[in-house]
Amino acid sequence: VNDGDIYTMVSSSLSSKRYTYIHESGSETRRGAIDIHHVIINRSRSTGYARLMGLAFFLVILGVSINIVLLMFYLYFSMGYLKWIIHLKQDNPVRTLSWSCLLSGFFVVIQSRKLVKKGEEALLHESVIIMPTFGIQLETQYLSGKTVSRFIPIDKVLKPVLVECVTPVTCYWSLSLFLRGEEQLTLVFKELRPSLKMLVPIWKALCTLIGTDQSEIITEEKHVVSG
Amino acid sequence: MAEPKLRVLMVSDFFFPNFGGVENHIYYLSQCLLNLGHKVVVMTHAYGNRTGVRYMTGGLKVYYVPWRPFTMQNTFPTVYGTLPIVRTILKRERITVVHGHQAFSTLCHEALMHARTMGYRVVFTDHSLYGFADVGSIHMNKVLQFTLADIDQAICVSHTSKENTVLRSGLAPGKVFMIPNAVDTAMFKPADVRPSSDDVITIVVISRLVYRKGADLLVEVIPEVCRLYPNVRFVVGGDGPKHVRLEEMREKHSLQDRVEMLGAVPHSRVRSVLVTGHIFLNSSLTEAFCIAILEAASCGLLTVSTRVGGVLPDDMVVLAEPDPDDMVRAIEKAISILPSINPEEMHNRMKKLYSWQDVAKRTEIVYDRALKCSNRNLLERLSRFLSCGAWAGKVFCMVMIIDYLLWRLLQLLQPDDDIEEAPDINFCN
């Protein structure tokens, strides 16, 4: 341990099923102490594969079920017309069904390949290093040892915000930064989606960094979150 | 703030920034429910760039889900595609009642189906009348039958609408409540100084100039009334395909100085047009609930109308058959009773009869009734679908079974407690 080292200690940590949040802060006595917030994925490779298999299974079921429903609708609409009954006797519905099953199978295989590729680049953890009066460093570390980092000087940061992001299939919270001169919001955690419980202390720390008066912000009704 | 009594999710394809009757209804109803202390969340599809979560007045949270609309503002019907996002929203906001609006909205039907599968209480409001004869209506009615087979309560906006819905869907009439629409009486006030009715009587018409709104009737009625009463003038607001016919009528009878065509009138300016008149003329052939006549009555105008759903008290309206001669007779009668009309008194009566607060209280009763309904398990619910039709019943059962399986699968992939609950944000006013 050299004199030049910065001493940090773990001041708090939170753990959920998927992520672990660790907050390291510099010693209280030193001014300008660095604050580090880590969010680590706690999953092993095997659970990754299990999820892939689950997803593949889901897609197969979805493909097959949509085919069955379409087939039933096709038959329903054709029920009323006598001449269509002749078509029923032919192989057409069965053939279309088998083709669409094959196609959905193909689709599933392609998707799982993409996901496996992503899995190789498995994330280890992302962290936010807050340096008072200096700036913020965002780091993403991968299993392969690669680290991607980005430094944002303090005068570029306008405001940190907690945003609810809605996608066609889900909705989640994300912590973003308004940066001077940039139109788009900058995500603090690019790949991970930690829960709101973990994001709030980081957001508060960022607010303190840029000196936002937190009482101006909308008062939040604290709801006891289960699980 | 105390824990809200009910947490309602309003689902429809039709919401602001799109403008119309259903959107208005959802917005006003939500605001009044928020005032009563409940929590309301609205779910609709994305409009252009507007996606994500938005907050409106009073803390009304709106989810603009990024599903592309494909025709007439409806989301593309994928039957099961919206299951993950609906499940996420229901869990995040800890919803207790799901309220769907408008039979024509695909998002509404899908969301109600998923909510039912997951065991939530479901209420449906129908805003329009539909036919029975053409191919589009038949299929729409089948879809409606499917959705309403398993619903807890339904609401219709008028007795006409209730009859129509019950016939179309085969729903038990005892389950359908009738809650009329209301009008924003704070916005539609009579003029401070009423225009004098001694020299000139002004008849106002504001509607879309289409066949269904009786624009053809107007073409017959206006020249006749102008001929009988030299002191009557017409103000026609609104635009549409029949605009050309009205222009032709003006030319033919040289009524340019007696019939004023305003073109499309934005909703914010409707009141200023209404207060210039004494009588409001509505010639719609069919309407589930005509808000236009409520707005006119709230502004203190005497109304002449065809027999549409949502009719005013007898002394505020003169009814007529959708026939030119009968309408002329009704206008004559209206002109004769015009001196006895007091706009302020009319407005005050409207305030008491039609208010959104009243609608919200009645809707609250419907929600409470829905919550009291027992939760049926899957097999009992499937038996309800079988009565929908010989073939259709089995298709519906299949659809529900697959929905149930997909839900269970989603629960395996993303367990319920993985979905984080969103905090209730209290806006300091």
Distance from N terminus to C terminus of chain B (CA atoms, Å) equals 13 Å
The total domain count of chain B is: 2
The main sheet of chain A orders its strands as: 1-2-3-4-5-6
Structural class of chain A: alpha+beta
> Helix segment count of chain B?
14
Q: Cα distance, first to last residue of chain A?
A: 40 Å
Summing up helix and strand content along with how strands pair, one would put the structural category of chain B as: alpha/beta
Q: If you compute it from the alpha carbons, what radius of gyration of chain B comes out, rounded to the nearest whole angstrom?
A: 24 Å
Helix content of chain B: 40-55%
- In the CATH hierarchy, what is the superfamily of the largest domain in chain B? Glycogen Phosphorylase B
CATH class value of the largest domain in chain B? Alpha Beta
Number of E strands of chain A: 9
Strand content of chain A: 25-35%
* Percentage of residues in DSSP E strands of chain B: 15-25%
Uncertain stretches of chain A: 82-86, 215-227
Major β-sheet of chain A, in short?
Answer: 6 strands, antiparallel
- The gyration radius over C-alpha positions of chain A equals 26 Å
Second CATH tier, the architecture of the largest domain in chain B: 3-Layer(aba) Sandwich
